[in-house]
Amino acid sequence: xxxxxxxxxxxxxxxxxxxxxxxxxxxxxxxxxxxxxxxxxxxxxxxxxxxxxxxxxxxxxxxxxxxxxxxxxxxxxxxxxxxxxxxxxxxxxxxxxxxxxxxxxxxxxxxxxxxxxxxxxxxxxxxxxxxxxxxxxxxxxxxxx
Amino acid sequence: xxxxxxxxxxxxxxxxxxxxxxxxxxxxxxxxxxxxxxxxxxxxxxxxxxxxxxxxxxxxxxxxxxxxxxxxxxxxxxxxxxxxxxxxxxxxxxxxxxxxxxxxxxxxxxxxxxxxxxxxxxxxxxxxxxxxxxxxxxxxxxxxxxxxxxxxxxxxxxxxxxxxxxxxxxxxxxxxxxxxxxxxxxxxxxxxxxxxxxxxxxxxxxxxxxxxxxxxxxxxxxxxxxxxxxxxxxxxxxxxxxxxxxxxxxxxxxxxxxxxxxxxxxxxxxxxxxxxxxxxxxxxxxxxxxxxxxxxxxxxxxxxxxxxxxxxxxxxxxxxxxxxxxxxxxxxxxxxxxxxxxxxxxxxxxxxxxxxxxxxxxxxxxxxxxxxxxxxxxxxxxxxxxxxxxxxxxxxxxxxxxxxxxxxxxxx
Lengths: 145, 412
Prior knowledge:
The complex is a heterodimer.
Chain A: E1 2-6, H1 16-24, H2 31-35, E2 45-49, E3 52-56, H3 65-69, E4 75-78, E5 81-84, H4 94-98, E6 105-106, E7 112-113, H5 127-131, E8 137-141
Antiparallel strand pairs in A: 1-8, 2-3, 4-5, 6-7
Chain B: E1 2-6, H1 10-22, E2 27-31, H2 44-49, H3 64-67, E3 70-73, E4 78-82, E5 87-90, E6 95-97, E7 100-103, E8 107-109, E9 123-124, H4 129-138, E10 144-148, H5 152-161, E11 167-171, H6 187-196, E12 199-202, E13 207-211, E14 214-217, E15 222-224, E16 227-230, E17 234-236, H7 239-244, E18 252-253, E19 265-267, E20 272-276, E21 281-283, H8 288-302, E22 315-320, E23 323-329, E24 334-337, E25 344-350, E26 353-360, H9 366-374, H10 384-389, H11 398-404
Parallel strand pairs in B: 1-2, 1-7, 2-3, 7-19, 9-16, 10-11, 10-16, 11-12, 18-20
Antiparallel strand pairs in B: 4-5, 5-6, 8-17, 13-14, 14-15, 20-21, 22-23, 23-26, 24-25, 25-26
Helix pairs in contact in B: 1-8
């Protein structure tokens, strides 16, 4: 299946992926309305230090520890994409305990959020990839993780 | 092939999903002594708190059994397994034969022998949906509740019923709350949070006897109560397999393929004991993620595959009144205390490995530490100072990042 891959060589640490992610998942039509004067809470995060930077989001593991460990059954794997049903999530943090990449984080209401490859929002394909100005994030078929 | 699964929680469901990964058409019979569609046991406190409901706490969708072609037999308690004839018998007299069997019978609350316990009017335990519904039914705004045991179950129960009663007192033999997962330095933080929310904690005490709606404590204190909830611990349900001749310790003994000592019989979940790789000891790791993975492992092997689960460790994510904590592994070796701004982070390391950690408050990306323990990653191969400060992939080698984030495969 197609996944989001990052090439840290091309990452500029511009954080645009974080803004595009937050916008795509805001449900708003206007980027200004979605982001202006708000602290964004995206599902992709840039790590940066000493000139190295890269974006981290859900790897959509074939053997997902978050799904197997989810105590409520809120996390599931559908056609390879790991989805979260926020209506079922109780915010127990077992997925935060389980994810080896730190790719699941809480929303403002305490239930969890994660990258769903923009399959459940209006973007349709990953907004971080579309918004990356330097091609450091791509959406490709490369085999298993 | 015909598979029988005894148990309808995480391990049993994991087994169904494991079998179906390989064989879409093998016969599966799933028996449960409960009458419910599969539900999440750890959510019973959230149910009483109003954070979930009977519909949302279903562990899998309504069409789970149908979709997976499972013959679901609710309300059927298995009373006998005969490994020689490969047959089981239920309480109602139903007999079924199997090619492979999974025992995922879970655990039962342990109730210590205390004089006068039988005479207590409203005595409950807190493990199943029926327990929770019965407790909810008995609670009134005027109830004074006494909870015996300040472990994970007792304290989650206290949080869940906080707004449904007048007063909650929690008693424990230990000198602190959550003594199985927190040390003496960190437990008081949680105790304070509970006390701020009106839950009283009585350490280093136990009930000597119950008399006329009062608990007479060993210390001499007398606690009047209307409702009693005993949460001192659970015991693995091993009897069924023990009687059938399987090797048992504290729990049913299984190997990394979830096999018991009996042919064609597997076990998974809270009824078993397994190797904790962080301490090297055999333990009952009664944790949902562990149960699912053991069950899934059993299922794959029952379906003729070859799957092992070799990296069990103790781990818990739990929170009270908005204060979250994540702990994992074993607290031995040297301690690196990175607590700051009211957030607790203690890392325990030994022999170039992370052995365990305690985090309270900011638990962001804690899973990166869990992975260090579970995968036994040599600390000398990463930037330990950096990762101790901030969990992240920056502390790993570029090769690791290229593989995990970039999908680059070296040596292929």
